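Shipment paperwork, digital attachment
Item: protein structure file
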Amino acid sequence: MASGVYNQIAQIKLNRVHTPVSSVAIAIAIAIGVVLPIRETGGVQPLELVTYDWMMRNRWYNPGLDHRLLLVKITETDIQTQQKWPLSDRIVAQVLDELAKFEPAVIGLDLYRDVPHSPGHQDLRFQLQSLDNVIGITKLSDSQEPGVPPPPHLPAEAVGFNDIVNDPDGIARRNLLFAQNAEGNTFYSFALRVTLKYLSDRGIVIENSPTDPQRILLGKATLSPLEQDSGGYKTIDAEGYQILLNYRAPGSISQEVTLTEVLNREVDPSWIKDKIVLIGTTASSEKDLFFTPYGIKTETETFKMPGVRLHAQMVSQLLSSALDGKAIFWFLPNWIEMLWIATCSAIGGIVAWQIQHPLKLGLGFMLGVGGIVAIGFALFHWGGWIPVAAPVLTFTLALSGVVASKLLYTAFHDDLTGLPNRASFMNQLDRVYRRSQPKTFPFFLPLGKRSPTLSEQKPPVLFLDSKFTPIPRLLAVLFLDLDRFKVINDGLGHELGDLLLIAIAERIRTLMRQPRTDGIEAVTIARVGGDEFAILLDNLYRSEDAINIGESLYHQIAKPFTLKGQPIYTTASIGMALGRADDSRNLLRDAHTAMYRAKALSKARPQVFESAMQNNAVARFQLETDLRRAINAGATPINGKIESEFLVYYQPLVDLTSGKISGFEALVRWQHPERGLVFPGEFITVAEETGSIVPLGELVLVIACWQICKWQEEFPQEPPLMVSVNLSGKQFAQPNLIEVIKRTLDQTHLDPTCLKLEITESVVMDEVELAIEMLSQMKALNVKLGIDDFGTGYSSLSYLHRFPTDTLKVDRSFVTRMVEGDQNSAIVKTIIALAHNLNMDVIAEGVETPEQLAQLRSLGCECGQGYFFAKPLPAAQIEALLKSDPTW
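Attachment content:
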């Protein structure tokens, strides 16, 4: 059973630390809703094309040169050698003649020959008419510029258009195979004509697919036309029959020779025989250059690729597909691409939802983006182009959206319990307050008339005892603070402490979710502090209803919890504040004040806020502020006196053997500039709770040591006067206490043996071994040590002999009630005997009568203090007392 409860609470904890699933779903939906419309309108296309270029440049395979092709390039040197451009028909004829001698399969002439370029027109005409394997070029006309006619001596089936398609960013990524004009005539591209001529000798022809008229069969290749939205495209002109251009390499993809080398017969015949020979210019001055995905990474050119090399890329792609079975780029249907993008968005949202640690989340983001890119890159290597930029965007947006939701959620919710936090609770109170403010509606009234405010409208009414009685609606804030939670947390460990808080939050939720017949609503349940919870109740018409709910909460929390098999009992102090909506901003403060009242009274019922509580809280806050200010002001010796708001009063310690003053106990008072003299009972507790007791104790120690040094000079005696200073528990626990004592002794030049430090019995017994170690370090400074209020604590006598103390102080409760022969007298006698056996002396507090003094002397008590001798006095009166040199 205990294990089941623990598992249930652990699961609650797991569920609470996450942003609600609805927020994750909303973030995913927003990411999809933002990116998909932008993608459909082409907004993501530039990013997709940049990604395409990156993948094209970084493919890891290297197919090498295509030995089916030879490129005859016309370089700047060739043009300078011929001293003419365009080349004369005779030079072109000579090149064709030299190439024909070695029986090429196809000659692709990537040079316009629409008009004669003398001399040699008849020579070129003869070559074009006699060779049946020459493919010429033409340029199709369009609405923007006229075309270029084909060579007049070639048949139509030996001519292909030279148009190269550029994307909107000016980069050539597509291979236009054929197109139609307005009359319905079909024109083949130059690259396709060259390829078909080469394949025809191998019995391969182009034909339509019998199953899909849009597809074309070419040997082993099945070609599908590029659509407007294929891959990463969305807004391209897909007219004609286009395929994605699959570059073989960034630079030259075949053996290359220059025009001059061909004319000088410096070419290996094996480079030509049965090969495709393409002739074209690579000279940059002719501006037949195109941007490619390789950009500045081109090996042989600095930025652009010559048109003849681009045609070689297209021919090589078609040959590799038709003869080698290399797949043409394929694409997914648009609906599958959208599903892929939506899936990446969902993954991004889930990653951000599940991972809490920032570094792990950053790693998850990088792995997610890297995974999307890796999938796209792997498919690209195998001929598939899918969107990459759009999925990365949706993944990033969804992840960022969930992270933003988590930040927003954690800003207003508690990570441990999943409840709203203090900021959220205060926002809710503020919303209630704003709704309560008067509002006007001028748009619905004639000009010059004022709309009624909400406060002027009639309040809601209920029928009670058949009378028409208006009852105002109330709000209530319940403030719960767990009792002894620090003990549980420190004693059983923080893990069980966290589980207890989760279990308490769940009990509060369960109770407040129970259906009610009185209409009361728990608007907000929040964890507003470490072990503090607050509840805002609405629709209240009787304060008794809120009190009943508070009592129910008390009893629910008082029931035992079983966590990890450990039964845990706790209770809660509950404060409550009631008010109208227009008072809502102060309700949490007032309920908090009432909670402190409940804790002080230790009653098993809620305490309702009263104005006096607020007055006390304000007074305490002012006291804390003034206390810190006075401590920060410190103390300054001026003209033989100490200037400070804190006054040290001194009560004489009397040597009962001689009856003379042997020293003083230093007791602090506060001379408040407005309130006058403030006694310790009014401010020491506040100093303890706020931690101000540590600097205050150091201040008292410095003043007392300085004062006793001054008196030792003015009133010398043997042994010299000594001073006793009390150390609080927090002072005793401060890490640098030994340094503080040593520094004070050095600054005031006080003999350490004249300083006695007193610690209460309960302080040394909290951590015995640590106390012994601390006392030993203090003793090493040669100061005297005493145990105050001995007999009222819970010490074990077995430890007393281990304490390096010099004095036991008998508590005044025993001395003031001491009568010869009674129990208190026996206790004092026992303490004195115990101290003497342990080589300690004894101080008796509270000596008020001669009888008590006489009895203490008879018991062998060394020292006494009390009103019989003198009450605590300021330094000036002590000086007067010392001058009178009294004896008792």
